[in-house]
Design goal:
5 helices, two-stranded parallel ribbon, 113 residues, alpha+beta, 37% helix, two-stranded antiparallel sheet, 4 strands
């Protein structure tokens, strides 16, 4: 993340539309196979918040708060592109908070000042 300070020094920074899948992802049409888990998602979020805090970032925007498997299946027709994001929610399809949700909540109340 710190590379942005070299590319655009003296600016304010934010991380937008980020996410990490909490489940394995396989999209043969793209030759894509990613092994992941709730723990991987949690570690990504922890590292991102720690680094963003060190860089005094203005904001972090998570791409999707909830998984959208039903939307993906019914409305999006199981589209390969949108499959990339369907399991990145901090809340799963059963509306149960994932491990990373507690990390988000902790940082949500954080005030550096």
């Amino acid at each position: 993340l710190s590379q942005i300070q070299t590319i655009a020094p003296g600016n304010s920074y934010a991380i937008v539309e980020t996410g990490w899948t909490a489940e394995d992802l396989s999209i043969p049409a793209f030759g894509l196979s990613v092994t992941s888990s709730e723990d991987n998602q949690k570690k990504y979020l922890e590292k991102m918040f720690t680094e963003a805090d060190a860089m005094d970032m203005e904001a972090i925007i998570w791409f999707s708060s909830h998984d959208y498997t039903t939307l993906w299946t019914d409305t999006l027709g199981s589209d390969n592109v949108s499959q990339i994001w369907k399991d990145t929610g901090l809340v799963n399809d059963s509306l149960v908070n994932r491990e990373a949700h507690s990390i988000w909540d902790t940082w949500l109340g954080y005030d550096k000042d």
